[in-house]
Structures are given as C-alpha cells and as structure tokens.
Design goal:
The complex is a heterodimer of chains A (443) and B (244). By secondary structure, chain A is mostly helical. Chain A has helices spanning 9-15, 19-42, 59-83, 94-121, 126-151, 160-177, 181-200, 208-228, 230-233, 259-263, 270-296, 298-308, 310-315, 320-346, 356-369, 374-390, 398-412, 430-442, and strands at residues 43-47, 53-57. Chain A starts with 8 loop residues before the first helix and ends with a helix. Chain B has helices at residues 44-51, 74-79, 97-106, 112-125, 127-131, 142-154, 172-189, 200-206, 224-229, 231-238; strands at residues 6-15, 18-28, 33-38, 59-64, 67-68, 82-85, 160-164, 192-197, 209-214, 217-223. Chain B is globular and about 45 Å long. Classes of the chains: A mainly alpha (443), B alpha/beta (244).
C-alpha cells in the first residue's frame, strides 16, 4: 500500500490539529456512545419466573464500552493524522511510484490468469473451489449492480429482487417444463430485465434517498410474493430438484451417458464443481465485457452523465427516461443471469436466500470497490466474501471485525478501493497532441 | 420580412402558483445575437428554460424554424439543434473535458467527420480546452468550465445557441474572452445566439438587438445601441441608479 510510506514527522506535526480538537471529538463520540448504550447495555431486562419484569444494571460494562469508544476515537483520529488525507502529495521516491503504477496496471491480468488457474491449483480442495464460485457470483452481482449504482448513479437497494427473479425463473421453467439450463439462462436474464424496466417506470422521477426507499420496498415485495404465492413458488418451502447444467446436453453424472463415461475417465464430483466454476467465470467476464463496451458507447456515456447532472443531460438531447430504464434493465439482466446460476448450483432455492441482507452486501461491494470501477468491485467482492470466510474462526466477533474494516476503509479511501475513473474518450494521436501542448503552454 | 428562427408569442409559465412569465413575445432571426437583460427574478432564465420545455408553457406558443415546439420534451427540442449553456454551467465534473465535449455530440447523430470538425472548431475558439483535454471537468477553473459548457453546446452544431449568464462569477478579462468568442461565432459561422445576462453593458454591446424583462414581462426592446442609450436602462442596469 502506498499509504504506508508516510510523510516525515515534521510535516505531520505542522498540519496536525491540536490535542484539544481530538479530545473534543472523542468526548462527543463517548457521549453518543453513553446515550446509545445506557439502555442497550446499562440496563438488562428479563422476564422473571412469574412473568414479572426483572432488571438489573450493568454499569461496569457500560463504562467499559464508553471508554472503548473514547479511546478508539482518539486512536482513529491519531491514525488519520499519521496516514493523512488520500490526496496528499507524499514524499515517495519516484522509483517506488513507478513500481506501484506498474503493479496497479498488472493487477488485473494477473488476477484474471490466477482465477483461470484456480480449479487447477486447488483441484483437491473442495472448500476453496466452492468459495471461489461464491466469490465469483458476488463479483458478477457487483458488476451488474455497478451499472445501476456506479455508472448511472441510481441508488438501488433492492437488487436482490432481480437475483430472485432470475433464480425462480430458471427453477420454475426447469422443474415445470423440463427446459435445460442453457435455454433458461437467457430467459431468466430477459425476465429479470423486464422486471428491471417495470421497477424503472415508477421511479423515473425519483432520485437519491427516495429512489433507495422505493427500490428497497421493491426487493421486499418480490420476496413476499414468492413466500405467499405458494401454488407457483412453493412458498417458504422453496423449489427443490432444480436440474444441474449439462455440457452440450451431456450430464456431469456417474451415469453411462455422463461426461466421465464418455471420456473414459473415472467420475469425480469435482468435475461438476469445476464446470460450475467456469460457467460463473464466463458469466462474470461477460458482464464485465459488456459493461466495458457499453461505457465506450454513447449509451454508457449517457449513464455516467446522468449520474453527474440529469438536467444537463436533458438539455444535451439525451432521453433520460430510456437512459434510466436501460440502466435498470442492464443491471437486472446480469442479476437475473447470476440468479439462474445460483439456482442451478444450489439445486434448491427458497425465499430465505433473497433477503435484504444480499442487496446490502452487493451494494457494499460496489461502494467499497469504488463506484464505477470494475477492478475495484472485483477486489471488494474478494475481500468481503473471502474475508468473511477468513474470519469464520472469530465466530461472533466476525461482524465486529468486518465493521471495523469497513469504517477504516471509508476513512482512508472514501471513494472506495479504486476511486479513480478511467476516461472513455481518447484523441486518436494523443501523444502528438500532448507534445504540441507542452510547446503551447510555454509560448 | 423573413420569418424569425425562433418566435415566442404570449408565453406564460409558472412555478406552482407563482407566475414567472406573464405573456412574453420575443423574436430571434437567423444570424442574430439577441440579448435578454433584466434584474434578478425577472424571469430571464425561466424564459430560456421554458423554451426548453421545463417548466412547461401554461399558455402561448413557441415556434422554432416554423415548427411548433410548445410542449415537446426537452431532449427532442435539443435534437432540433437548439443548444444551451445552462445557468451554473452544469458540466459533468467527474468526466474528462474530452468526454464532456463528446456528450454534446452524442445525441445529435453526427458522423465521425462532423465530430472531428466540431472538436477543431471548439479548440480553435478555446485553445485552453485543448490543453485540458484529459483533465476532469470538475478540476477546471470557472472560466474554463464556462468555455467547456459553451464548447459542449457547440458540439451539436446548433442552429440556435442559448447562453444563460455566461459571465457569471468570472473575472472581467475572462468574461471578455467569452464574449469575444461568441462574437466570433456569430460573425464567422452566422450562429444565432440568445444571451441572457446581468451584465447589461457587455451584453448589449455584443448584441444586435436586446429585450428588457421586468417581472415576467418584456418592457422594452430595440437594437443593442438604442437600449444602451435609454436613460432608464442606464439608471437601472448600468450605473445602478447612483447618478440619479
């Protein structure tokens, strides 16, 4: 991390606000903590044996919490000063800077090659393969939501709805009509995109907080409909027996017509996992490719311009209605494809998989990754899903560590892991022009 | 007499119950620079926005090149090649200068060659923008942002360019550069311009004709130099009434 190479102490002291400021901030934090925790922790209530209210106080615990907040606040403030704001020009040797720039440019291809090799490297480790599939699913969801939130700037808190639509589309089409995964996959995507447009219409005039609330409600509505429409969806029992994907009609089973038998190799359940891995990798890369392509087209540019200034967009002749609807539809399409994959991987789906928690998680991935950055979203998905697994041993403190990590990240990289936005319009002979400009500047 | 390019007849518009335009008549002929001056809240910007369909006209008629555009959606009006440099510039801050300019050309389906020549034209007018090509719009200075807003509007090769307070918040020298650029555009390309300004002196010197707006009504009109000579204009907009 480039931030580690910090400014010399002399610079720090000169820009550091005084101890009084830090103390004041810590006291305010501690006071807020006291107000919050005095009832949450300070007083413990329980139903007594006769049903009466029993309560006792835990002031020592409360004191510890408030003290922790006080100390933590000072610590964060000091760390912040030590680290400095993100944009500060640091005393970093040019050689280190160029090395970092090279590393930054190289990270995407290296990650891609590594991802392709995961099934080879970890063939015997089922756990890692499963985790990799999970991470890739979230990478795809993140990239899908990135179109809506990161590019078009439409805050969508109900993204899970499209994931659910995709999953149920595949599950119901496959179990009721016996359609194969490869037929249902585009259908699931199209259905989800249709729902995306349907959500888009009522929210055309909304933005920011209002949009967020309506999309949140939309996500819940879809889930509630799935729970209550028992005749179609099986309600809370979900859909079982969802067929597995086949390789051009060849199932990956130990049967006589299975892939292993046809190839004359010994059957192993890992074959199917590896197959699933490459399916989701292909789907995720498709999402990425389409997004990158669209960003260079007028439509993608219009999305970004819409995020920046809707009024100016309209004045430039951009139809904001269709621009918004296509953003919703494109995001939903990818959500639906990921949903169909989720259904075929699990073999069983129920409404429990599509709670608000999922929407929040995907949104967190997009925000952490840096809105609009493809690589950032991939890294954030890896960190969030992988990191979550990594800290499984911490048990109940897992969420605490997770929350801390998020807070720290938002302090030091408020624009996300990769906040930098790559331009999409280039001049044809940019080199020639830039050298011209140097002359112009001097003359 | 030839038909005006833009003809506005007894136009009314309102924000809720507050009437901002109370029956405005205004004509702009092709190749003209027309200045619209008036105090804060007179309805100048509202008039410009109403031409663009937001807020919608409550009554009256707006005709552009013989076509009725009253009630036509904003983006379709823009595609008729009426371009706007809105109040407060409204450039896209996180997008590069090049992308901002590209946005101006995206909606009017222009060919690759048109875009290239459009860029040439903008850069000839504002060489500063060429230097700043790869910079993010938000990092430009106020004057450069105004240049970018005008350049972006020019990218659609407009038949009518509408500028809302282009000199707002700019140093006098930069403001003069902007006004010079507008004059050049008009003389060389015959571009028709409607300019809304607080800076009446500059605007009226630049314009062929001017309109004065008070409380949602046009109270005076005439050639730029005529209006500059009128004592009430001098008192109200040029010398701040100090000499009375």
């Amino acid at each position: 991390m480039d931030g580690r190479v910090s400014a010399p102490p002399a610079v720090q002291t000169s820009r550091a606000p005084g101890a009084a400021f830090i103390l004041k901030k810590a006291l305010i934090s501690a006071f807020v903590a006291l107000v919050l925790f005095s009832l949450m922790i300070g007083v413990r209530t329980e139903a007594g044996p006769q049903g009466q209210l029993v309560y006792w106080t835990r002031f020592d615990d409360l004191a510890i919490m408030v003290a922790a907040v006080f100390g933590g606040s000072i610590l964060v403030e000091l760390l912040r000063q030590w680290w400095g704001p993100v944009d500060t020009i640091r005393v970093v040797p040019p050689s280190v800077q160029t090395a970092l720039a090279v590393a930054r440019r190289g990270i995407a291809p290296v990650l891609l090659v590594f991802t392709f090799l995961v099934p080879v490297l970890f063939y015997d480790e089922r756990y890692i393969l499963d985790l990799a599939i999970l991470v890739l699913t979230y990478v795809m969801l993140g990239w899908g939501l990135n179109v809506v939130v990161g590019l078009a700037g439409l805050l969508d808190l109900g993204y899970v709805a499209f994931y659910a639509v995709g999953a149920y589309s595949y599950a119901l089409l496959a179990t009721n009509f016996g359609l194969s995964f490869w037929v249902c996959l585009p259908l699931a995507g199209i259905l989800a995109a249709f729902w995306g447009v349907l959500l888009g219409f009522p929210v055309l005039r909304l933005r920011g907080d209002y949009l967020a609330i309506v999309t949140l409600a939309f996500g819940e509505i879809i889930r509630l409909v799935i729970i209550n429409w028992q005749t179609l969806t099986g309600g809370p029992n979900g859909v079982t027996g969802i067929p597995r994907p086949t390789l051009f009609g060849i199932p990956l089973t130990p049967a006589d017509d299975g892939l292993a038998a046809l190839l004359g190799i010994e059957f192993s359940p890992t074959h199917r996992i590896v197959f699933l891995f490459y399916i989701i990798l292909a789907l995720a890369l498709l999402t990425n490719w389409v997004t990158i392509r669209l960003r260079r087209l007028p439509l993608g540019r219009a999305w970004e311009a819409l995020r920046e200034d809707e009024v100016a967009c309209r004045a430039l002749g951009i139809n904001t209605t269709t621009t918004k609807l296509t953003a919703f539809a494109t995001g939903a399409l990818f959500g639906g494809l990921a949903g169909a994959f989720f259904a075929t991987r699990q073999g069983f789906i129920s409404p429990e998989s599509f709670t608000f928690h999922e929407s929040a998680l995907v949104l967190a991935i997009v925000v952490l990754g840096g809105m609009g950055s493809q690589l950032g979203v991939a890294l954030a998905a890896l960190a969030m899903i992988g990191g979550f697994e990594l800290f499984r041993g911490l048990d109940q403190y897992r969420m605490l560590v997770f929350g801390m990590a998020m807070v720290l990240l938002m302090i030091w990289r408020p624009r996300g892991l990769i906040g930098h936005r790559a331009p999409t319009v280039f001049l044809k002979h940019s080199q020639a022009i830039s050298s011209d400009l140097v002359k112009e500047g001097h003359g | 007499m030839t038909k005006p390019l833009l003809a506005i007849r007894s136009l009314r518009a309102a924000y809720g119950k507050i009437e901002a335009l109370k029956g405005v008549d205004l004509d702009i002929s092709a190749g003209e620079i027309v200045a619209l001056i008036g105090a804060n809240g007179a309805g100048k910007s509202t008039l410009m926005m109403t031409i663009f369909g937001r807020p919608r006209a409550r009554a009256g008629r707006i005709e552009f090149a013989g076509q009725d555009i009253t009630g036509v959606p904003t983006h379709e009006i823009a595609r008729l090649r009426i371009a706007q440099s809105p109040e407060g510039r409204r450039i896209f801050p996180r997008m590069s200068v090049a992308e901002n300019l590209q946005m101006g050309a995206d909606a009017t389906d222009s060919s690759e060659a048109d875009r290239a020549s459009g860029l040439e034209r903008v850069f000839a007018l504002f060489p500063r923008l060429k230097e700043r090509m790869t910079q993010r719009g938000g990092t430009l200075s106020g004057g450069e942002q105004q240049m970018l807003a005008i350049g972006r509007a020019l990218m659609s090769r407009p038949r009518l360019l509408m500028l809302d307070e282009p000199s707002l918040g700019l140093a006098p020298l930069i403001a003069r550069q902007i006004f010079d650029a507008i004059r050049t555009l008009n003389r060389q390309d015959g571009l028709t311009v409607l300019i809304v300004e607080q800076n009446a002196n500059h605007a009226l010197k630049l314009a062929h004709r001017g309109y004065v707006m008070v409380n949602g009504l046009i109270t005076l009109s005439g050639t730029g130099s005529e209006l500059l000579q009128r004592p009430e204009i001098r008192a109200a907009y040029l010398e701040g009434g100090r000499r009375e």
